[in-house]
UniProtKB/TrEMBL annotation:
Pfam families hit by this protein: GCHY-1 (PF02649)
Similarity remark: Belongs to the GTP cyclohydrolase IV family.
Annotated GO MF terms: GTP cyclohydrolase I activity
Cited function: Converts GTP to 7,8-dihydroneopterin triphosphate.
GO biological process: tetrahydrofolate biosynthetic process
Protein's UniProt name: GTP cyclohydrolase FolE2
Catalytic activity entry: GTP + H2O = 7,8-dihydroneopterin 3'-triphosphate + formate + H(+)
Entry keyword annotation includes Membrane: no
Taxonomic superkingdom: Bacteria
EC primary class: hydrolase
NCBIfam families from the UniProt entry: PRK13674.1-1
Length: 366
């Protein structure tokens, strides 16, 4: 026969736990912080008002004299380079992951062989394999700063791309730089000059070891509706009625792949756009310039379809241009909607689906 003392209990019940908790709180309220910490620092959280305390107290003053050495650095957590078990969601390859709108001053080389420094917005991304948690994004910025002091060209962008493909152990990568490029433009008749600012972007993409270069330009012009022009002239001729055709500020985003050995300068692409559609918006205007602009618009009335094809004609004739895309938006003064067109040459820019906000980005805010 097995005998068990009557006071032995296999496991404490809730009442026993409550009694123990009350005892522990009573003791902690009368004990010193050192005694509590010696028993268990977590006991401090049992005291009223200290439920979320982080005893022992942490230092609150910034340690200005503290220096990081290699030994300390080795103890620091690095979640982005952690094990596969840390991946959340589907273990799928990411085509692009990186940074956007990283800003820094960059030097550019002009067609006249002069240099200028412009504030640039950088987007830098790499592909991420399905089995990797993430990337250290600061390495992209460090790669750019390493080369930012040099005269900036595609060759320097390539150097930055080389760095972060190596640093981030990636197979594909992309760098895009956006900036506003100034050019001094002469008025049509008065001889005044002023700076026109052109929104440009340079893009370098590496996919499966193949590198391709792209240039993007937003060209802003005035578009006079041919239909409205003819109707206005009809009213004048048939009824002696003064009428004006409607014109509107318009934007074409011209994206080109750069091919061959010859350089396509920023100024070259601007000149190409101006040859196609000469009614570029003006900077400095006196009365004679305003009259000249009205005459220039009357001599070059265009629908949005015409604009895309006129740009296309000039792009096809330039041997430095490979695949390209023209996205045009005529921001109507007659209608409460815009007229838009897209023309692509080659497979690079062909797409069945469009970004729902694509045309919203073509507004020129001046």
């Amino acid at each position: 026969m097995n005998m068990h003392p009557s006071h032995v209990q296999s496991s404490p019940d809730r009442d026993d736990a409550q009694d123990a908790l009350d005892t522990l709180r009573t003791w902690a309220m009368s004990a010193t912080p050192e005694e509590v910490a010696d028993l268990d620092p977590a006991v401090a959280r049992l005291l009223p008002g200290q439920e979320v305390s982080n005893y022992p107290a942490l230092a609150r003053a910034y340690p200005e004299e503290f220096e990081v050495d290699d030994a300390y650095r080795a103890t620091m957590p690095d979640l982005q380079n952690g094990p596969t078990s840390l991946i959340r969601g589907a273990r799928q390859q990411l085509q692009h992951v990186g940074i956007s709108n990283f800003r820094l001053p960059v030097r550019f080389h002009r067609r006249d062989e002069s240099d200028l420094t412009l504030e640039s917005s950088v987007t830098g991304t790499v592909s991420l394999e399905a089995g990797k948690k993430g990337i250290n994004m600061s390495r992209i910025m460090r790669s750019f700063y390493k080369h930012a002091e040099k005269t900036f060209s595609f060759e320097v962008i390539e150097a930055a791309l080389d760095d972060y493909i190596t640093d981030l152990d990636s197979i594909d990568a992309r760098i895009q730089m956006r900036f506003s490029y100034p050019m001094k433009i002469r008025s049509l008749r008065s001889g005044l000059e002023g700076y026109q600012y052109y929104d440009f972007a340079l893009e370098l993409i590496e996919t499966e070891g193949v590198r391709r270069k792209f240039m993007h330009l937003d060209y802003v012009y005035s578009s006079t509706c041919p239909c409205s022009l003819e109707l206005s002239e009809h009213a004048r001729r048939e009824r002696g009625q003064l009428a004006t055709p409607h014109s509107q500020r318009s934007v074409a985003r011209i994206s080109v792949e750069l091919v061959g050995e010859d350089c396509l300068w920023f100024e070259d692409l601007i000149d190409l756009a101006r040859r196609a559609v000469p009614t570029e918006t003006q900077v400095m205007v006196k009365r004679e310039d305003e009259q000249a602009f009205a005459e220039l618009n009357a001599a070059n009335p265009i629908f949005v379809e015409d604009a895309a094809r006129l740009f296309c004609k000039e792009l096809l004739a330039d041997g430095r241009v490979g695949d390209f895309r023209v996205v045009a938006s005529h921001q109507e003064s007659l209608h409460s909607h815009d007229a838009v067109s897209i023309l692509t040459e080659g497979p690079t820019f062909a797409a069945q689906s469009l970004d729902p906000k694509l045309f919203n980005t073509l507004f020129h805010v001046g």
